[in-house]
Amino acid sequence: MKRISAAAILLLSLTLTACGEKKEVLSSPPANAQSFSLMLDWVPNADHVGIYKALADGDFGQAGLDVHVQVPSDPATPLQLLVAGKVDAAISYEPEVLLARDRGEPLVSIAAIVQKPLTSIVSIGSKHIVKPADLQGKRVGDAGIAYQHAYLRTILARAGVSENKVKEVNVGSDLVPAMLAGRVDATLGAFWNYEAIQLAQRGKKPNVIHMEQVGVPTYDELVVVVRRATIASQPALVRGFVQALARGYESSRRDPKAAVASLLRANPGLDPKLQAASVKATMPVFFPSAGRAWGWQDQGQWNAYGQWMLNHRLISNPEAIVNASTNEVLAGQGP
Fold this sequence. Notes:
alpha/beta; D-Maltodextrin-Binding Protein, domain 2; 6-stranded mixed sheet; 5-stranded mixed sheet; 11 strands; about 35% helix
């Protein structure tokens, strides 16, 4: 379970009817379009804005696809259902892909939706935690995820703070509520583009410490994952899907207001103010450096992050890192 928080729980309460298979076809596809199922990582939110813009604009239909978005009832299930062949693609996280591959699951990441870590250490302004050294003597809440525990160890080691000077508290799904209630001083696991914005809108003046700036190797927070066999047997299908998705995100960049409107029309229970602010904050990390196609994944970065996971014994098989991601289906890439 990668991300459980107050914001996620709030979103869940607003979208209970979305659990299971939620068909988000906003523009009718051609009659002969091929059905394609995409499972989100969690409930719909600003990270998915390009998906809903592509649906609204008919980008998938133009690629000959009838795309159905599914919302998981449990955030642990997307990759499980993908492996089982229940969905054609799933959105997940780079560390989760490597963990799955370490278990021998034949999955590959085919595009990065969010090019930087969103996971961060968040605290309310009154705690004055603005750098890792400020964590000394503090309580840090997390959801008990092994690699996030390793993040904290890495950050503290780089800052020269002894681990026994920081109390790590497993608060489960109550990351933000535990902090607001004073049970912990900061949380590791909240997203800077969502929970931090939500706290700011509530006047809490949050401080954010970004993982990749304090010792954790950078990684792609959200990625699109398929079975390796799907690329081998249906490369045109996968290519068409990814490139239509790219058009959705490019369109979102050109007209963020229209993109947010598409997201809200499909998911009317979402908070418009929060979604608009989150889309604005996230927009730069939806895109790689200049000259790269949307969805580009840096193989050196994947290798470095995978090696970090090996070093921290989060994975044990070096082969899990090899060819874990590919750019072959992106625009201008591959045969």
